[in-house]
Every structure is written in C-alpha cells, then in structure tokens.
Design brief:
Number of helices: 6
Number of strands: 0
Order of helices and strands: HHHHHH
Distance between the termini: 32 Å
Structural class: mainly alpha
Largest sheet: none
Strand content: under 5%
C-alpha cells in the first residue's frame, strides 16, 4: 500500500516488479526521467525502503504500527532531507516538495 501512495504522490500508476533489484531499476527509470529526476527517484526509493524497515522494527520490537498515510509523509520528509544533504543546489521548501516533487527534482543540477 505504501508503494501505491508514493506512486500516487509522484503522479504515476504502475505495477512494480517483485524482485528487489528490478524494482529499484524500474522505479528509477519510470517515464524516461532526466538525470536529476532519476537521482531523486532513487533517493525516494531508498527513503521508502528505509521507512518500511523502520516500521517493521517498530512493529516487531515496540509493538507500534503507523498508518500508511503517516508512513508516506515520512517518506516525503526523509527524501527531502536526504536530497538537501546530498545536493547543495537542492534549496527547495518542504511544502513545495510535497506538492510537486518531480518538478523540484530539476533543481538538483
């Protein structure tokens, strides 16, 4: 469900591959993105995986579970932080990032 929410946020609809590495490759190459957008897509993908791993650990070790909408918001925030820390030129406001992430991706290079 989280992958669908993230895809909706990014504005595309697809069926994702079941293999971990093929899923990453497919996610980063959707719609023939520019190099900047592909970099952003890879960071967003890693953010989703990071949030899923953290949620799994919270569920197993602390018996806490979040709703998918909260997890999607965590992905948006995490990906924005990682992009800001990796690229000095990514000087985008978080609220704008939440609204139009792919358009914001072009500010990386």
């Amino acid at each position: 469900m989280l992958w669908k929410l993230v895809a909706d946020w990014l504005g595309f609809s697809t069926t994702f591959h079941g293999s971990f590495f093929n899923h990453l490759h497919q996610f980063g190459r959707l719609r023939g993105f520019s190099k900047a957008a592909t970099e952003s897509m890879n960071i967003i993908w890693l953010s989703v995986v990071w949030v899923i791993c953290k949620e799994r650990n919270n569920s197993v070790f602390q018996r806490k579970e979040e709703m998918c909408q909260v997890l999607c918001e965590n992905v948006k925030l995490q990906s924005c932080w990682w992009l800001k820390s990796k690229y000095v030129t990514f000087d985008i406001d978080y609220q704008l990032w939440k609204q139009i992430p792919l358009a914001c991706s072009n500010s990386i290079f």
